[in-house]
Amino acid sequence: MGxxxxxxxxxxxxxxxxxxxxxxxxxxxxxxxxxxxxxxVKAGEFIGIMGTSGCGKTxxxxxxxxxxLPTGGNVRYKGVPANRILxxxxxxxxxxxxxxxxxxxxxxxxxxxKENIMMPLILNEDNPEKSEQTAVRMxxxxxxxxxxxxxxxxxxxxxxxxxxxxxxMAADPELILADEPTGNLDSNSxxxxxxxxxxxxxxMGKTIVLVxxxxxxASYCDKIILLKDGMILNTLESNGEKKEFYQKILRQMVKL
Amino acid sequence: MLNKFFLKxxxxxxxxxxxxxxxxxxxxSMVFFSTAVGSFMSFIDTGEPAAMxxxxxxxxxxYLLPYILLLFLMLLILLSYIRKRSGDYxxxxxxxxxxxxxxxxxxxxxxxIILLSVCGGTVLGFLEAEAVRRILEGIFKDVTxxxxxxxxxxxxxxxxxxxxxxxxxxxxxxxxxxxxxxAVAAGGRKGGKAxxxxxxxxxxxxxxxxxxFAAAVTYWGRIGSHxxxxxxxxxxxxxxxxxxxxxxxxxxEHKRAYYRKLLWLDDWYxxxxxxxxxxxxxxxxxxxxIFSFMLPFFDSLPVTQPENYPHDxxxxxxxxxxxxxxxxxxxxxVQAETKRSxxxxxxxxxxxxxxSASEYEAWTGEQIELSDKEIYVVYQRDREDMGSIGLxxxxxxxxxxxxxxxxxxxxxxxxxxxxxxxxxxxYKIKGTKNRILTGNFKTRSLNMVCDVFEDIIVFSDRExxxxxxxxxxxxxxxxxxxxxxxxxxxxxxxxYAKEHSxxxxxxxxxxxxxxxxxxxxxxxxxQKLYGxxxxxxxxxxxxxxxxxxxxxxxxxxxxxxxxxxQFYCRSGMTQKKRKKNLGKEVLMAAKVSLCCGLSLAYFMAxxxxxxxxxxxxxxxxYLAWAxxxxxxxxxxxxLVMKLAARNTCSKIERGNRNGRKR
Lengths: 256, 662
Hints:
Chain A is built from 8 helices and 10 strands. Chain A has about 260 residues and is of the alpha/beta class.
């Protein structure tokens, strides 16, 4: 394992997130999605978040990525409360330290694969030639080198997701947040994507938090947080044996 | 590099961008058109090209409402554009776009919209203005044979455009800041609530509409249209909401019809308030177009109405001026007719001509039986003012003073006339009539609070003789027709009147009571143009808003409709039936809006038309115009929505084909 340290990238303390809506009779209804979660994400970890639909996985990931703010408790990014990281400071963290990979890829159809990968570097005003070299290197590394001049709508699902991973990796971030990156892919493409993410974690030392439904994908993680009704049901740790860990996850999933 | 990327992203949205630019061009062309009309009118009035300050004053007074509506249209278009671009903006935010880059990106787009709109709008507006100039040169050929445009409309258009685009940007920016781009992008989609019926709402709606109908032809409807309009629009909301709720609830009980219609009505049951709110907005716009803009537009057409000024010159003179009149007849061949009269001041800051019943009979052939304390009022109004409030704000016993107006008549406290003033309710109005005898003249030159027309008040012969002796002011009305040497005659009359005749109390230049038919005719044409042109802009703008809201609704509902279409497709429904259902669903909101909005609008507009008591042929003309207008509007809406339905259908089918290919 590369790059693991004691430093916490994220500290989550008693995290709560509620949504509000109006009922048919005009009264306000509160939906508590996250109910007092506490855990840490250490540098170099590969954490998986699992749970049934609607248990708050995506909400948790959005809160960790500061796309959403908690309604109770705290999320600290490198010791700084997330609600104090705003404006340009937040934008800089998103450009240089944090990256997202989404289930729906969110690639820009107007740009080529190469330009999509270059986007974070261009937004960071990096040297265009160097950015281009980085994009080409990334694409080759993740097996999409021949696709650089294609548009996203010409790619398969797996190719799109690998492009999205290249884009996430382009600015060399410390933390990658992946929201069901294999959700829209077939099993072969899923394996290719999760192996890519595992490679990024193990060989490049990046910290990854991954939301998934798939126990096979989850078995590549070091640690699994199982959520049920907005609370942590259990935390599972891998001993390095994927098959064993996979069985362990399956046994726990019955309880969900 | 960054700019190249931004431009590339923008290029992929070129169709949406083009729509915004085309809308901007339309808006700016309307602004240029209005400033050009203002400039032309100023030239007709003064004989000189318009100066900036008076032009701003004129344009602001006449076109403020159209500009507000244009701003509203601009906002609708910008918010729709933001909704379409929200995905790009959100993605760039997640990738950590810097504030300066975001502003550069948005600013570059917005600046492009402004530049293209202002340039294109000015060119289009210039072409429109050129067409109008030719029409005006025809209408005012007795005043001038060439009306120059000048540079002021260009400058003023630039100023107004910057204000409209500046306000548009600030409002959109604030909405995005306060609500977040997700909320703005979501539009009305999240506001959907399930169906609920309420008898209280239904009753309140019916009552509000009844009050609106009553208000339209009584005091509030006669002094303006805002109160009945607001009541009717409020009532329409309640009626549509509750009436629609009742219809859908009832339908659910008739199983066969319910299950047949459920294929395109399901979302109305699911998100009733959202659909009904959108339909209401369109219905209310249609109502406002017809009730508040179409009627005044018809009133102002044709802009030349010579029947309102049948004589060359009307002069409030005095007995003893006959010798001067004879000299005019001898020297210039003037045909002068005199009427023994008196001046009557009313508490609504008006001054009118009083004549005896026998004089009126000799003049018009109409016999009127009046007792001593009864009067008969002949309102000399053009179509625009017919059906508006009567003498002394519509009182049956108006506060009157026999004699001309002066400072000593009113005792005020605030705006209320207090007891002790000289205006008393001594006479009762026995009857009224709309008829132009001397002309559609206004007493006042100041245009301060409201214009009061110079009406004819008929007294019984005995009462007329009794009061005339003590009445101050002019006592002889002279009606002249001047076949030749008009300018010389007018010059002599003005010079003579300055020495011998009553001064107009309401004229800040202390002029005499001389009304020139020709001059008033030109002024009237100018006023009618100032009445018609903003109404035309209002109608076009609000109609564009109607189409825009409906198309936006189709776009906003696209995902749901597409999903349903796919579902029907996979459930084995034939393509013909799928298209039919989709068409019905897309057209539903337009149909509801047209039925509710047009019905109410025509009911209220018909009520107003008949309340004007115009000659029969004008009633028919108004109704025919209204019918053509309504059918045209409904036809365009129907056609556009049919096209939208067809486009939605093709888009889904195209998606299916592409999906299969992949």
